[in-house]
Design goal:
This protein is α/β, with parallel strands linked by helices and 191 residues long. Helix 2 packs across helix 3 and helix 6 runs antiparallel to helix 7. It has one domain: Rossmann fold. The radius of gyration is 16 Å and the shape is globular. The protein is 58% helix and 12% strand. The longest helix has 19 residues. A five-stranded parallel beta sheet has the order 2-3-1-4-5, with helices on both faces. The structure holds adenosine-5'-diphosphate (ADP). The site of adenosine-5'-diphosphate has 16 residues, from helix 2 and helix 3.
Length: 191
Amino acid sequence: MRIILIGPPGAGKGTQCQRLIELLKVPHLSTGEMLRAEVRDRTPAGLEAATYMDQGQLVPDQLIVGMVNRRLQASDCRGGCLLDGFPRTLPQAEILDDLLERRAMCVDGVIELAVPRDELVRRMLARKREDDDPEIFANRIASFEVQTAPLLDYYSRQGKLASIDGLGTADEIFERVQTAVKRFARAARGL
Ligand code: ADP
């Protein structure tokens, strides 16, 4: 299955992704991690991306799309994958649908981890990671609300969205994630 996990920064996507890849036995495609590897290796793409990432802004779509497309073509993604951090804009979602359609594939389901903004800020202040400068964190939330939130509508219209409550323990949230995955699996079998 091809599943997308969407959530604002600090929603707890990382924890749920780890559990989900163990359950589904599919590769975890995190564009944040791919970009950080490019930055570390000081590739041209990485150097360009860093100027946006340092400000909490999204990197340009064309930089991301090539990277994801190459990854999606790898043989380990044939049986499915978990997309984390991509797509993040409407153009990215449309391009992804195109790329998959050309290979007679599709997105099976999209899980939104919904967490209210004041809770995100509270968590950010509590964990204080070095990339959690309050101003930059605010930029990341703003880019989620402005650029990424419209995707929820896009996938909802396709009947593929499962919005789940991102408050609670990691176990409770994973229960909700599994319920969503079962629904996607039934839909994929045409039930
Ligand atoms: P977050 O903690 O905000 O979920 P990620 O680890 O997914 O962050 O990504 C880190 C940064 O990488 C983002 O703030 C953004 O600058 C960039 N990035 C990751 N994925 C994308 C994408 N699909 N489109 C544009 N920029 C991206």
